[in-house]
Design goal:
173 residues; mainly alpha; 2 domains; 5 helices; 57% helix; elongated
Length: 173
């Protein structure tokens, strides 16, 4: 099924249109925008994957120690503590993942501004994520990413910090 609006600029499309007359992109492919790119670049610069691997190793070690400390071979119900310890470790690691996402959003705003692009475009990306979920998001503490509403709020705060006198009109959209 062909989309009714361009995935890149949201211009209305006719049924048989394969390329958007507004932005020139293929109508059924979402291109990588500067807001995506600046966010992802900071994941690399911020060494988030290396930090995640180290945190996971630490969490696994602590979980193993907690299991060994609470296991009683004479009490079969003591095995439940292992599952609780693993769940706590996973939730703690997800919290760090959410922090990494917010940090990448903040730095993405900075990178965009320094490159002459309007960082408010990141808000529209988050709005698209929010719309795509159709209100079916899990509670944030069960997710590796903050909910789009929270990210929008934080991006807007960062834009205000980056441009205390307002965003200039001459930035690329």
């Amino acid at each position: 099924m062909q989309p009714t609006h361009c995935l890149n600029c949201e211009a209305p499309l006719s049924e048989d249109q394969r390329f958007c007359q507004n932005c020139g992109q293929k109508t059924n492919t979402h291109r990588l925008t500067w807001s995506h790119f600046s966010h992802e670049v900071f994941h690399v610069v911020g060494r988030h994957s290396a930090e995640q691997a180290a945190r996971a190793q630490l969490s696994d070690g602590l979980t193993g120690a907690a299991v060994m400390a609470t296991y009683d071979p004479n009490d079969p119900s003591s095995t439940g503590s292992a599952q609780v310890a693993q769940l706590i470790g996973q939730m703690v690691n997800m919290s760090y993942g959410r922090d990494d996402e917010l940090e990448s959003d903040n730095q993405g705003v900075h990178y965009m501004a320094q490159s002459g692009y309007d960082p408010r475009a990141m808000v529209s990306v988050m709005q698209k994520l929010e719309q795509a979920s159709n209100g079916q998001e899990p509670p944030e503490f069960f997710s590796t990413h903050p909910n789009p509403e929270r990210r929008i709020e934080k991006i807007q705060e960062q834009v205000a910090k980056e441009f205390p006198n307002g965003v200039p009109d001459n930035l690329k959209k």
